[in-house]
Amino acid sequence: MEWGKLSPNDVGTDELAAFLATRKKDGLAASSLRITVIHLKVFWRFISGRNYVSIDAAEPLLAPKPNATLPDSVHETSVVKLIDCIDTMKFLGKRDRAILELFYASGLRLSEVCGARLENLDTEEGFIRVTGKGNKTRIVPVGLQARASIERYVKLERPELVKAKSSSHIFLSVRGGALSPERMRSIVKQRALAAGIESKIYPHLLRHSFATHLLQNGADLRVIQEMLGHADISTTQIYAHVDQKRLKATHKKFHPRG
User: Fold this and answer.
1) Is position 207 annotated as part of the catalytic site?
2) What is this structure's pTM?
């Protein structure tokens, strides 16, 4: 079919579907194919609305669903290695261990750890109040080991970092200010390299690992949603796909007819 010689009135839904099938066969990504469908719908809606064509041939077209990108996670043993390799007797060791413990224990976003303040932390009850996306505040549990690390840092090392203009941010830089997201990422990366972990480690990976490990150990998806601060359960359901992938791999490996 020579598309250049056709007028819009010569093109129906079948022709548009054939065009899209050809584009898919040529290797066009699902995301790009979805945009193409949207463009066709907008164009045909316009020309049919102006009565340039008798019918809206693009109206029945269905845009392909975007591919769900499964979040990466790191194995539990690697997280333990990452944290335990920090020498807390060295300067900033207590601070950096407390940072990593909090990331993994509570699944906080990078911005939430950077913005965490002393007045919002209750180590006795084991909770921290953070403000996340959309300026929404939530209360998140803090595990025993993370609480112990934070208490040691606040008591023994943070006072050394406090300067005259320091705020109540939990984690301070050597200059006494709140740690920036860039510096926080650098700390996580440096500690991973020092621990000899070859895979790339970054703050959001620890958040993903927090959720994945909770689900693998039987936590309810709704509870994980609340702790992560997701407004919609569909966002959290991506971790269910991760767990299903793990279960499928386990079945294939160990079942005699897998």
Assistant:
1) yes
2) 0.68
